[in-house]
Amino acid sequence: MTETFDADGITLERVREYVWEMPQTGDMRVPARVLASEALLEEISQDRTLEQLRNATHLPGMTKHAICMPDGHQGYGFPVGGVGAIDAENGCISPGSIGYDINCGVRMMRTNLTYEDLQGRERDLVNALFEAIPSGLGGGGVVETDVDTVEAILERGVDWALEHGYAVEDDLLHCEDEGVRAGADASKVSEKAKNRGKNQIGSLGSGNHFLEVQRVTDIFDAEVGDAFGLEADQIVVLIHCGSRGLGHQTCNDYLRKIERHHSGLLNQLPDKELAAAPAGSQLAEEYYAAMNAAINFAWVNRQLIMHRTREVFADVFDRSWESMEMELLYDVAHNIGKKERHTVDGEERDLFVHRKGATRAFPAGHPDVPRSYRDVGQPVIIPGSMGAGSYVLRGGEHSMDVSFGSTAHGAGRLMSRTQAKQEYWGETVQAELEDTQQVFVKAQSGATVAEEAPGVYKDVDEVVRVSDALGIGDKVARTFPVCNIKG
User: Fold this and answer.
1) Is the pTM of this model over 0.90?
2) Which position among 15, 277, 368, 450 has the lowest Cβ density within 10 Å, counted as fewest Cβ atoms?
């Protein structure tokens, strides 16, 4: 068994199986850890992920160690798949370490339909979903409105959707934070961001965002599967998107402000993309309030897409969505920064937990897990590629100690979008998925399909295997695509 791993001048030491440590040297404030098998570590080392992880350890207040998940890959400053828990009193908050797409996340809706109920209707369903749910770059949403409405959404989250008939009470009970972030302040979000958001409420956007109708192929834990309402051959719907142009603009606005006003701290960091505002500073407080508002916007965005999906299913199957039991299983963010209380070296501390391409994975008994799941643990949703399975996990019993209550967020990219378009032809990928795996894909362009081809991603089975082995996210169920729409 290899005890060290070397990559371009960075040496990792094996702590135990699937845990690799980059020792603290030079100006690093803490060590860094990578949670991966040797096969995944080999892939992670092919880009700047390890360098970015090392850079992240320079952020003031970084606690215990900066962490890279099994699906890690190069990002903006901070690696995608990164977790950084930073002291909320003496540390900082770093927008780039949370991501441009604030509250990019996933929600899964279960149904009482079986795969047999769908067979023969796949093309009708994928066409109807593509027609009804806005996707792609630019404007277009289920709701196109004004800035006043955007401000209400920013402050109230899914409560706004409930009041306006786009949600039912049960939807809020099965969403992280019940779909509303406390401390959101719409006045801290720029007019430019609000104007970008007002015509995008209820839209997928582009890139790796999608809506996928899936069938449950495997149940690994019958007791937890039952608690989650999942069974073999069941049809579920997975929605993956975020805060669209509003979130992107909010991140950009605050990065520029922080670069100007906290240049002293910036000059101490090895990468300006890690720009951070000191905890307690005016900009830190303003960014946190704006980020919480953008989080609310993203939850409403996914809620409206789910609402429209319910309408499409009702039309295609000629029955009410209620009779098909189209209920929200869970909605969880994977680009987010939250003030949380964690035990570090035996001491309870308030930390800004930056999760960038990492999913919250709280264990059974944690008070922030919805009451209906508290006995078994928080649902964790890990999407794979169009040609591979996705997974439902539950927060593992070791997640708080190993990863600040976090696990992976997907398969993780192996190649850039540019390289993907050179390697794959979208129409060919589409045809092969339909012919060989009966997966029906509808997208705005062939280029989008090429960018998201199955070969572009790491092996999601291996990512989940490592998560399960470490006890940070335990396998509950596996799903496989039936229909997929994307921008």
Assistant:
1) yes
2) 15
